[in-house]
Amino acid sequence: GIQVEQSPPDLILQEGANSTLRCNFSDSVNNLQWFHQNPWGQLINLFYIPSGTKQNGRLSATTVATERYSLLYISSSQTTDSGVYFCAVAKETSGSRLTFGEGTQLTVNP
Amino acid sequence: DTGVSQNPRHKITKRGQNVTFRCDPISEHNRLYWYRQTLGQGPEFLTYFQNEAQLEKSRLLSDRFSAERPKGSFSTLEIQRTEQGDSAMYLCASSYPGGQPQHFGDGTRLSIL
Question: Do B55 and A48 touch (CB under 8 A)?
């Protein structure tokens, strides 16, 4: 199956700092999603981005499908950004079931 | 769009009991997925349906687990003779087919005493 690696595993920031999270995957995919899991366990959709670049407020993401990686950028971080960020990928030939990385645990301190 | 709904949110039960969870997907979505997430890990795929047909089951889904989607709408996941290792968050997601984004419910957190 597809392998998904996320880095860094842990990240501690001061409020206002910027950060970049990386996701590497081992095969071509037709779905890539970034999620934020809050302390209550809810998985919040951030981006659906199998290729290209998207922006939503302070967050943006870029996927370079030919090189099999994706980046999530968080600018001017806030304490509410804390939580675990997951990258997940899928191939339609596998029923589009998502394979998740291990996540990046982000802590933003005031 | 009311989102994906899962019930119950929390379930505490004794080892050996049977439990059943329910997932109501987004109404227009014909794909429905179940995932399981243990502490400190990313969610792992269990099974998925397209309409009422169960098309794939993970090796994680032992004989004690069964899932149904009888009318192609809501789905149930049943665990028989629960074990300590079944303690986890059970997540449901739905989507259109063809690599479209999956939308997740809030999950059911199962604790086995």
Answer: no
Q: Counting one residue from A and one from B, how many pairs have CB atoms under 8 Å apart? A: 66
Compute the nearest-CA separation of A43 from chain B (Å).
7
Nearest by CB: B102 against A30, A33, A101: A33
Q: What is the pLDDT of residues A50-75, one digit of tens each?
A: 999 999 999 999 999 999 999 999 99
Name the minimum distance, in Å, from the CA of B33 to any CA of chain A: 8
Distance of alpha carbon B35 from alpha carbon B14, whole angstroms: 22
Helix (H) or strand (E) holding B61, with range, is: none
Residue pair B58/B47 in contact by the 8 Å Cβ criterion: yes
Q: Cβ atoms within 10 A of the Cβ of A41, count?
A: 16
| Token code pair at residue B29 | 């979505």
Nearest CA in chain A to B106: A42
The two three-digit tokens of residue A11, written as one number: 């990240």
Q: Are strands A10-14 and A104-109 parallel, antiparallel or unpaired?
A: parallel
- Cβ neighbours for B100, distance < 8 A, ≥ 6 positions apart: A31, A48, A96
Amino acid at B105: G
DSSP 8-state code for residue B84 = G
3-state secondary structure of B50: strand
Query: pLDDT per residue over B88-104, tens digit each?
Result: 999 999 999 877 899 99
CB A68 within 8 A of CB A104: no
